[in-house]
Design brief:
Helix content: 10-25%
Family: Belongs to the TRAFAC class translation factor GTPase superfamily. Classic translation factor GTPase family. EF-Tu/EF-1A subfamily.
InterPro entries: EF-Tu_GTPase, GTPBP1-like, P-loop_NTPase, T_Tr_GTP-bd_dom, Transl_B-barrel_sf, Transl_elong_EF1A/Init_IF2_C
Pfam family, one: GTP_EFTU
Shape: globular
Protein name: Tr-type G domain-containing protein
Largest sheet: 9 strands, mixed
Keywords: GTP-binding, Nucleotide-binding
Number of helices: 12
């Protein structure tokens, strides 16, 4: 991690923003779009057949891995060829974890050839047959003309193929929502999930608040979850038409779970916990057009960078500002994104074609940062954000997912409830393995370092019943009559075979992002590691007596209250007032109790 990220935590941005990493990448509309390549994907070549200068004749060459497939044409294939094409589609769907993109009229080397209307119609008919064979649906994302010296117009068609994997109920994508207080985070989520525009006075956000004081103040202080579904044809499925959460899950083939986080600095610890514990796939950073980068916006941006969470930006409240004010806010964002600590390439989204390109490039390159400008009151450009979310593919590949599922079960406990007639319920994320109804697990560590036996009675995902939970999925688990007093946030539920390692002392390699004076032995900070959040004291700084802003070192920490379950290599973030730092755990074995006793449940 570049230590210059500390600039985002330790003060205001300097005018000019430092050397630019590149200009704003503005996706072009039909006839000038590089549909699935990053900014480096446009190649100049003499074989442009007289194409216009703003219509590059190449896409990046087709990759063997990934969910993007190039096809020049699919006209009347033989039966053998058809079966091969079906097998190829299954592979691309597996790589995209249920989603694939077909570029029709493109050669394998990326040359944009295009097809005449009759050939394109026949190719799409074949693609539809292939999708039916594997149980998938297809949606035409866009058609673009290729301007060659030819009397017959030639087109390229981009098609989304979507199929819910056999072992899942729907595709799932978790999006953390960040931004300064009063930037419109809860209002935007209310508009997206309820299907009704806001009245300008916050009516859309009322259904999202969990506490009375949130309704009275209009400010989120806790973590809440909202869902937005898309069916196989890309149509929005939300709470409009009096749907319930169960009906949304049943009607959707893709589900976006928004994690609504607090914007006020007083609740920063809650925001950090949401980012570290719930493992979002990406983050949505909301910036108010009339205030620009203010309050905690810069800090939230720094957190996303420090934790390596990909993010895109939404500029809200454009209905309150003149066009020049919106443009000034966008330019301000571009300057910050191009700073050495960020190394991002801004991509302004102004059309549906831009939204398709942005979704594909965002998934392929961690440096691309799409920027949307919209209004939750007038609905301006709201559809562009929906198109983006519908097309946005999973950001982890199928191989990583399979590796996680083959490991032993590990479930992070983030929330604890008591539900009448159900008993104790815990919410969290399954970080590895598979969890089924009836599984016997152990939960801990307790204050004395023990793990207690328990049984998973039932599982729910997005408020609907689920029999099997797989790595990377968030859910709530019912534990029957297990004593709630024995549980706390930060515990883990693991397979008894794992023999988990716990520790009170650990070492980490850190970068001090910001500190007003010097960071010394004896300093107390709040440490965040995954779902663990506890105060720790600095016992030793190796090879140094003290640290200043931007410096690196290996530091030994000791938890003050009770031992925790940690793993070597886990990302770490610590804070205390304005002091902040990041790093990763480097040593546990020499400092920890390796053999953890199991005890019978005291339920």
């Amino acid at each position: 991690m570049d230590s210059r990220v500390s600039e985002l935590f330790g003060g205001c941005c300097r005018p000019g923003g430092g050397p630019a990493v590149g200009g704003t990448l503005k996706a072009r509309g039909a006839g000038g779009s590089s549909s699935c390549g990053g900014p480096k994907g446009k190649k100049k070549n003499g074989r442009n057949r007289g194409s216009k200068a703003n219509n590059p004749p190449y896409l990046p060459p087709e990759a063997e891995d990934g969910n993007i497939e190039y096809k020049l044409k699919l006209v009347n294939p033989s039966q053998y060829r058809f079966e091969h094409l079906v097998t190829q589609m299954k592979w691309r769907l597996q790589e995209g974890r249920g989603e694939a993109v077909y570029q029709i009229g493109v050669e394998d080397n990326g040359l944009l050839v295009g097809l005449a209307e009759e050939e394109m119609r026949a190719s799409l008919k074949t693609l539809h047959r292939m999708a039916e064979k594997v149980g998938a649906d297809i949606t035409v994302l866009r058609e673009r003309e290729v301007d060659y010296d030819s009397d017959t117009p030639r087109k390229i068609t981009e098609v989304l193929v979507r199929k819910v994997p056999d072992n899942q109920q729907f595709l799932d994508l978790r999006v953390a929502v960040l931004g300064n207080v009063d930037s419109g985070k809860s209002t935007l989520l209310g508009v997206l999930t309820q299907g009704e525009l806001d009245n300008g006075r916050g009516r859309a956000r009322l259904n999202l608040f969990r506490h009375l004081h949130e309704i009275q103040s209009g400010r989120t202080s806790s973590i809440s979850f909202e869902i937005l579904g898309f069916n196989s044809k890309g149509e929005v499925v939300n709470y409009s038409d009096s749907r319930t959460a169960e009906e949304i899950c049943e009607s959707s083939s893709k589900m976006i779970t928004f994690i609504d986080l607090a914007g006020h600095h007083k609740y920063l610890h809650t925001t950090i916990f949401g980012l570290t514990s719930y493992c979002p796939d990406c983050a949505l950073l909301l910036v108010s057009a009339n205030t620009g980068i203010a309050g905690t916006t810069r800090e939230h941006l720094g957190l996303a960078l420090a934790l390596k969470v990909p993010f895109f930006i939404v500029v809200s409240k454009v209905d309150l500002c003149a066009k020049t004010t919106v443009e000034r806010t966008v330019r301000q964002l571009e300057r910050v994104l191009k700073q050495p600590g960020c190394h991002k390439v801004p991509m302004l989204v102004t059309s549906e074609d831009d939204a398709v390109t942005a979704a594909q490039q965002f998934a392929q390159s961690p440096n691309i940062t799409p920027i949307f400008t919209l209004s939750s009151v007038s609905g301006e450009s709201l559809d562009l954000l929906k198109v983006f979310l519908n097309i946005l593919p999973p950001l982890t590949n199928s191989k990583e997912q399979e590796e996680l599922m083959q490991q032993l079960t590990e479930f992070q406990v983030d929330e604890i409830y008591t539900v009448p007639e159900v008993g104790t319920v815990v919410g969290g994320t399954l970080s590895s393995g598979i969890c089924r109804e009836g599984d016997q697990l152990v939960v801990g560590p307790t204050d004395d370092g023990c793990f207690l036996e328990l049984r998973v009675c039932s599982i729910q995902r997005n408020r609907s019943a689920c029999r099997v939970l797989r790595a990377g999925q968030a859910a709530t688990l019912a534990l029957g009559d297990f004593d709630r007093a024995l549980l706390r946030k930060g515990m883990v539920m693991v397979s008894p075979e794992m023999n988990p390692t716990i520790c009170s002392v650990f070492e980490a390699e850190i970068v001090l992002l910001f500190h007003a004076t010097t960071f010394r032995r004896g300093f107390q900070v709040t440490v965040h590691v995954g779902n663990v959040r506890q105060t720790a004291v600095v016992e030793k700084i190796h090879a140094k007596d003290k640290l200043r802003t931007g410096e690196k070192a290996v530091v030994r920490f000791r938890f003050l209250k009770h031992p925790e379950y940690l793993k070597v290599g886990a990302k770490l973030l610590f804070r205390e007032g304005v002091t902040k730092g990041i790093g990763h755990v480097t040593d546990l074995a020499s400092l920890c109790n390796q053999h953890v006793p199991h005890q019978k449940s005291h339920s």
